[in-house]
DNA sequence: GCTTGTCAATACGGCGGCGTATGGTGTTAC
DNA sequence: GTAACACCATACGCCGCCGTATTGACAAGC
């Protein structure tokens, strides 16, 4: 075809790499959940057929695994490493609670993964990520002179509250809160779960 | 009954009713999630074929709907109505938090449903149930002289903590807690989220 | 310019679930 | 004892997904 371009999906004429498939998988995952990350739908979405897919990956499972490991690494770098620099533990906690208001994409992904914890590929990734996050919380509470047990319990409580809120907001969509309401809620959580300076 | 019996599934030779299918659906749901509630597997489990199923229900969706409505009614009767009788609001809250330690089956079911909130049949049921529960919490906090906004936020926080803990415990199985640890955690939550008398 | 390597299309077989059609069996009613 | 009803089996067609096999297109290297 001498024609320069058609207007369909796949506007750029470049071929696809493994990374493209992984990125597309994460997009689909965020939008419609783990089960929606299927080879043929994803191929359609990318404007090719699955003949291409199986050149890059041996199976659907392999794609999921690669995509989740990519997400895991990226998540760690963008949300937790920046917080390590905040010296004051109470302030660090407060920042953690507040910063997570933005970056919706990360929450949406995490929320979808929460719904697929029975999946053998998803489970270990989520176990690692959640473990790290809870541990981060616990360390912070330890710095605030919580006993070992209290720090553990408060960390569990705080993280449970985060996880539950995600499900209620993003999945159940029970309470469509305004920005002010949301900020007020976060304020309430901070007051309740972080001891006053 | 003339025949004593055979030892295979379906030990009793009685035929099945709609209620049997609904009960079986809830069993499967608790064990393997919403997607596992499929006609043919369920029929196999009950020792019949789907020829039977489609006499009782027009579709899989209809079964799911009926089963969930049965669960909703039963849930309301067994967990919330008994609590209405406790006059003191703080005590009522404490009892709610503690009693839910037992009755694992109810939690397991709720937890599986949380993973299927995108399903059109599941969503409205969960919206009603969760709404009622949060409202119950809010009323209790109002009785404890919380402002309207504070009561709402604290109720959201408490329920989020419940929901999140469910996912972390039952689905992620991150922390295999002993009975004492669990009780200690519940104690911590009560102290943190319910004002002292 | 011809080969090699990379990405992609097509076509195929298989599996598991949904829903339909039709016929069969036991129980109950009279 | 026969007719009506309630429940169940069998067999079928459909769809969506997985994974394989084969061939094709296009670029780079030499």
Write the layout of secondary structure elements.
2 copies of one chain form a homodimer.
Chain A: H1 18-32, H2 39-46, H3 50-56, H4 60-80, H5 89-99, H6 104-114, H7 122-143, H8 148-172, H9 179-193
The first copy, chain A, binds a DNA duplex (30 and 30 nucleotides) through residues 15-17, 38-41, 48-56, 58-60.
Structure description:
- 2 copies of one chain form a homodimer.
- In chain A, helix 4 packs parallel to helix 7.
- The first copy, chain A, contains 9 helices and no strands.
- The N terminus of chain A is likely disordered.
- Chain A has a domain of 129 residues: Tetracycline Repressor, domain 2 (Orthogonal Bundle).
- Chain A has 197 residues and is mostly helical.
- Helix content of chain A is 69%, strand content 0%.
- At the A-B interface, helix 7, helix 8 and helix 9 of A face helix 7, helix 8 and helix 9 of B.
- The structure holds a DNA duplex (30 and 30 nucleotides).
